DNA sequence: TTGTAGGCGTTATCAA
DNA sequence: TTGATAACGCCTACAA
């Protein structure tokens, strides 16, 4: 045993009376191995508490047992949820999670990421939206041989590289619920341009109107950028309309909170005078008054599945469980929706 | 150059006509080096774009260029803020951030952490509250030679190992503000037992009352665990009191949101009938109605400073900027406080 | 089925 | 001030 106290492959080999390579084979579950030998080595490993050194493996394999989460922080809670899901998926494996925020706006974004991936020789990365939509980033991953899974509001890639939510259908359902309640003048606060999630959610909104035979009025659509302030401003514009919309679908909870403030500032009661539905189900949704009806997408599950996809085929022994690629969102009905009064 | 395309130290040595060790000395800024040689080597390094391989260094040095964030996820936003701060501090260095959540309740917590730290040979870790208060964890770090910085609501260690907020004083100030507004019956919703932050905030609350010569009534203190539900329940108990408190200080924003719901359920208007102050300044504070007056602690700055402390003395060249150890919180005045009406 | 030799890219030792 | 040589702990190729 070394002075560091950590037993190495040499210690195992010596004690078990075999060569290093044999130990290596045991560790890596090589199929061509005598059962006896394997058992003997495994016993020694368990006995002295040997753990393979990840740094040495990384050097020899030219590949690190590190999985990355690359994101652009649109929403802290969402990032944390995905992170938690990934950690669940990585639980019990030899992989660790490395988090890497990126600045979407920066010129150097691509080179930053390349530097990071090449240097650390990540095993794989989960690309969160909206950067998962950037094809040159995906191209980079392919180029340098880094596994990747993309997370997005719609499928953009094959199943092995994708965890997608069904934003369009989810929003369609949410708006259909509003229509069911009797609403006919429904406003939309859309997400920022260039975000696939914004496009999908808007499409879902339009789907619902079309299905119900309701006209699509441009004036009832306002743009936002997922922030509270943008929701506030957009809502002010919509609430200035005559006749006023009786309901608003906001493409994010945070913007929905802005809508609530705008409504309150005009003395409108929610949901009596205005119904609101948000998207995300972040903590704020449950904590505002009235509690916000919203669309919840399974961020934790998506993170977990993505992690499992990233490392699939590594442990060999682990069943090749088919991880899903499409994740269904659900409408969480709380107190911000009621039938219109007029 | 290897087939991988990444130039190695050997390439540099060959081209510069020196030995590997000399290149190594240049990389590591060894002082005993001829200026000419250094310049020549540096030129070659820049020319061919050589980047030292972190895995190889980790193996040779028995130490990884990885910094960990160990937390127990009390609050997603707080964790994200700290994480962001750390990444700012690590920006431009060779260090990467690894995130590691821990389950405070689990029996295996300590062994989980040991396994993680020993295996990955982390350079250092930032311990977030409340696990930063666990002395056996700190002991573990010392034992295995992993640098650490503790983040807490009060100083628990020497400056090199500490970033502390001044919760007690901050809460004292917040409650003093309530008293200034004319409140005399002020309720406290305390944090969970065993959390240092809970103790500190409570102490600050008591300080303020004492200073103002107000009696400390046990009945005006309710316990919570930082969750929304616990805040709701605690507030219900306080609001059942006769006479009712005219103000409540809640030890977290999330609990404060619960207080708001409880107040609303009784038809109380905030801040007319009840003033509320929270703690954390999470997004929910700004988004509830009325916007919550709260205490903001500089989580991002604390993360940044902690990261800088962790890696201080590594780059050699970088100035040994004295990073602060005490961080001052500020009272963010919004709309949830008004003078009492009775 | 198992072992030997050599390499992964870096740093440490010690001599020149 | 520099350089040869040997770690660091593991894996691949090839041989036995």
From TrEMBL, chains A, B:
Which residues belong to any copy of the HTH lacI-type domain?
A: 7-61
Q: Which domain of life is it from?
A: Bacteria
Query: What does the UniProt keyword field contain?
Result: DNA-binding, Transcription, Transcription regulation
Protein name as it appears in the record: LacI family DNA-binding transcriptional regulator
Under Pfam families, the record lists: LacI, Peripla_BP_3
Source lineage: Bacteria, Pseudomonadati, Pseudomonadota, Alphaproteobacteria, Sphingomonadales
Gene Ontology MF terms: DNA binding
Is Transcription tagged as a keyword? yes
